[in-house]
């Protein structure tokens, strides 16, 4: 064990909606979790047109639906989210076998959209159990029909805990353009030396997901996400593409970044003056190659706008390493290691980090199970000239703005969202009706063809449908 000194960063003050009894708070609990019992979400969405469909389940399970709808609606109201008490059409009950047939499933979802006069905002899907047809459901809804879906399981409906209903409400709000929590002190207040209200900043995250080890033909899937608001910087939209099998460098980063810059210009009204780019899943041997090629792609995307050269910070995020941190306690004359995990906000930037380069370990979450794995952040390029403390505080504070839960997460949200979006892109390639070939191909006569991902529907591509 190597002995070293670390620091524990203080949690940021969080801001909630103005309609609740508690409008702001600092999470001081040991695990940094906070409660929304007396608070509203920062920005509640209005879900007027929604429907519910059930796949499988017993008649007894079907009888849970009215109570579930009632509790979900009242919990949304308590959180400042408007969810109509009644769906636009009566709940539909289908057999789970429908998920095995993508053609009939598409027709059924199309009819639901038609019945709602083409402006259905949300489809809640209750399933008897986890089913591989989930992949088809998501692909059809988000690419063919243009529907945001929220899936849940009957076993959770039978228990129907307060936490489950609240988590479901948070996910629905985020998917439909709402915002669950934001930082009380905006980023320009926290780092005035670099950020300002007048000069917007775009946070980007990128991740490449590869097929499983025994698959030697499926394409890799890349996702790039970018924040679309400033100074809150907590709403992210995504772009996903398939690319050459097992290629780590992102192939069409210039095209995807160009599209995201275009969307940012529409939303914020001006181009970002600074870009903070978080890249997940890169090993140390590929740092130079990834930095060179992907920074070039970012520069190419910016060339579409004459004279536009945003200051960029390129950070690699690593979770797959073997470094673990333990708190050392002194008890009288003896010293031993605590059996508790290190507290959220623990940062280490000496002794076990690179002697010359800009890197640090940050454990922003509370490990509930097993030993906490700190995230290794490696700043490969920093045109914004951040000080160590500034970038550590920035990343730590961003970890409190993740939309799906009321606690800080272990990975900076742009990288986390890129990971979720890449997983969704991988789902689009999985067909439940595809039959695995029994024969083994020893030689490949033609080069691998990269199957393109289906195009997202216009009605969902500006939303956080992947979260």
From TrEMBL:
<dbReference type="GO" id="GO:0003676">
    <property type="term" value="F:nucleic acid binding"/>
</dbReference>
<keyword id="KW-0943">RNA-mediated gene silencing</keyword>
<dbReference type="InterPro" id="IPR036397">
    <property type="entry name" value="RNaseH_sf"/>
</dbReference>
<dbReference type="InterPro" id="IPR045246">
    <property type="entry name" value="Piwi_ago-like"/>
</dbReference>
<dbReference type="InterPro" id="IPR003165">
    <property type="entry name" value="Piwi"/>
</dbReference>
<protein>
    <recommendedName>
        <fullName>Piwi domain-containing protein</fullName>
    </recommendedName>
</protein>
<dbReference type="GO" id="GO:0031047">
    <property type="term" value="P:regulatory ncRNA-mediated gene silencing"/>
</dbReference>
<dbReference type="InterPro" id="IPR012337">
    <property type="entry name" value="RNaseH-like_sf"/>
</dbReference>
<dbReference type="Pfam" id="PF02171">
    <property type="entry name" value="Piwi"/>
</dbReference>
<comment type="similarity">
    <text>Belongs to the argonaute family. Ago subfamily.</text>
</comment>
<feature type="domain" description="Piwi">
    <location>
        <begin position="122"/>
        <end position="430"/>
    </location>
</feature>
């Amino acid at each position: 064990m190597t002995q070293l000194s670390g620091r524990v960063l203080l949690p940021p003050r969080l801001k909630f909606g103005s309609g609740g009894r508690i409008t702001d708070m600092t999470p001081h609990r040991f695990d940094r979790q906070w409660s929304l019992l007396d608070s509203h979400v920062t920005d509640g969405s209005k879900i007027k047109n929604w429907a519910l469909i059930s796949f499988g389940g017993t008649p007894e399970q079907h009888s849970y639906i009215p109570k579930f709808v009632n509790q979900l609606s009242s919990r949304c109201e308590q959180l400042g989210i408007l969810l109509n008490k009644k769906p636009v059409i009566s709940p539909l009950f289908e057999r789970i076998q429908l998920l095995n047939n993508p053609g009939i499933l598409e027709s059924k979802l199309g009819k639901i959209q038609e019945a709602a006069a083409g402006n259905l905002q949300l489809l809640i899907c209750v399933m008897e159990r986890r089913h591989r047809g989930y992949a088809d459901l998501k692909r059809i809804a988000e690419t063919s029909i243009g529907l945001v879906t929220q899936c849940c399981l009957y076993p959770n409906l039978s228990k129907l805990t307060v936490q489950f209903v609240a988590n479901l409400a948070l996910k629905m709000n985020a998917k439909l353009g709402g915002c669950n929590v934001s930082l009380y002190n905006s980023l320009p207040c926290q780092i005035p030396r670099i950020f300002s209200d007048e000069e917007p900043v775009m946070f980007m995250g990128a991740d490449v997901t590869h097929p499983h080890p025994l698959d030697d033909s499926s394409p890799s899937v890349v996702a790039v996400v970018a924040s679309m608001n400033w100074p809150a910087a907590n709403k992210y939209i995504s772009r996903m593409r398939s690319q050459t099998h097992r290629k780590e460098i992102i192939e069409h980063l210039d095209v995807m970044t160009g599209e995201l810059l275009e969307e940012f210009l529409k939303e914020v009204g001006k181009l970002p003056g600074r870009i903070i780019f978080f890249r997940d899943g890169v090993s140390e041997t590929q740092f130079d190659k990834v930095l060179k090629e992907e920074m070039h792609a970012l520069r190419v995307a910016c060339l579409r706008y004459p004279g536009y050269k945003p200051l960029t910070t390129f950070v690699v995020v690593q979770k797959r390493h073997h470094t673990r941190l333990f708190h050392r306690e002194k008890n009288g004359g003896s010293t031993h290691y605590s059996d508790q995990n290190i507290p959220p906000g623990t940062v280490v930037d000496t002794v076990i980090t690179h002697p010359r380069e800009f890197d640090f370990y940050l454990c922003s979450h509370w490990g509930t199970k097993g030993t906490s794995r700190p995230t290794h952040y490696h700043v490969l390029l920093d045109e914004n000239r951040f000080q160590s403390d500034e970038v550590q505080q920035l990343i730590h504070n961003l970890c409190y703005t993740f939309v799906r839960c009321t606690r800080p997460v272990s990975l900076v949200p742009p990288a986390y969202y890129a990971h979720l979006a890449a997983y969704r892109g991988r789902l689009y390639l999985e067909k439940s009706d595809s039959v695995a070939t029994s024969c083994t191909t020893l030689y490949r006569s033609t080069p691998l063809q990269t199957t393109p991902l289906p195009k997202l529907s216009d009605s969902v591509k500006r939303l956080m449908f992947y979260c």
